[in-house]
């Protein structure tokens, strides 16, 4: 059995962070914790690119665009959608989550969902608080682990492809000699 796990040694990795400006009193805490989490595991400040977007609805497009540059090992999406008195919460949270998931599948780059979807402002603040839930730091940890895991998997795939090409060539030569 082969077990693969991503590590948290992030030196040399590059990350993009897409953060919503809407509900900035929450998203700024998420961003701060996320950056601290990345740097704690060795990511250099110059290897972190932060892009601010108006709100959670705009996150998926920018995340997909950043991922498609192939300059980044992972993209982290941060936002806060807080339920109100209208169905607006349902539309925004559904489209943000659907769009972020689709962006990850389209780009083949880990895109981390760090968008809070809460019923109250108090819940959002609590989840952004580094000494409690620290969802920004958790998003950073997930991004590092996924970036390393994808590197391992792709590295194995590259080695297998190289092996098949090499062994295929040897088999072709052996058949020709017969």
Q: What can you see in these coordinates?
A:
The chain is of the alpha/beta class and 178 residues long. It has one domain: 3-Layer(aba) Sandwich (Rossmann fold), CATH 3.40.50.960. Helices cover 55% and strands 16% of the residues. The protein has a four-stranded parallel β-sheet with strand order 2-1-3-4, sandwiched between helices. Helix 1 packs across helix 5 and helix 2 runs parallel beside helix 3 (88-107). The protein is globular. The two termini are 37 Å apart.
What secondary-structure arrangement, pairings included, does this model have?
Layout: E1 15-20, H1 24-40, E2 48-53, H2 59-68, E3 74-82, H3 88-107, E4 111-118, H4 121-128, H5 135-177
Parallel strand pairs: 1-2, 1-3, 3-4
Helix pairs in contact: 1-5, 2-3
Based on the structure, what is the oligomeric state of the protein chains? single chain
Number of domains: 1
CATH architect. name: 3-Layer(aba) Sandwich
**Helical proportion, percent range:** 55-70%
What are the secondary-structure elements, in order, as H or E? EHEHEHEHH
Task: Give the name of the CATH superfamily.
Answer: Lumazine/riboflavin synthase
Mean pLDDT: 87
Helix/strand-derived category reads: alpha/beta
Spatial extent as radius of gyration = 20 Å
**Which fold name is given in CATH as the topology?**
Rossmann fold
Task: Name the strands of the widest sheet in spatial order.
Answer: 2-1-3-4
| Percent range for β-strand residues | 15-25%
């Amino acid at each position: 059995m082969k077990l693969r796990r991503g590590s948290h040694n992030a030196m040399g990795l590059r990350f993009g962070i897409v953060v919503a400006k809407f509900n900035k009193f929450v998203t700024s805490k998420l961003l701060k914790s996320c950056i601290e989490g990345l740097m704690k595991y060795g990511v250099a400040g110059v290897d972190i690119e932060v892009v601010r977007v108006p709100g959670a609805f705009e996150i998926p497009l920018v995340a997909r665009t950043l991922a498609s540059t192939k300059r980044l090992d992972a993209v982290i999406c941060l936002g806060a959608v807080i339920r109100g008195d209208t169905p607006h919460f349902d539309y925004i949270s559904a489209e943000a989550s659907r769009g972020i998931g689709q962006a990850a599948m389209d780009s083949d780059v880990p895109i981390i969902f760090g968008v809070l979807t809460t019923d109250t402002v108090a819940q959002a603040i609590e989840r952004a608080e580094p000494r409690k839930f620290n969802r920004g730091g958790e998003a950073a940890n997930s991004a590092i682990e996924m970036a390393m895991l994808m590197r391992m998997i792709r590295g194995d795939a590259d080695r297998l492809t190289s092996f098949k090409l090499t062994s295929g060539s040897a088999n072709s030569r052996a058949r020709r000699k017969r």
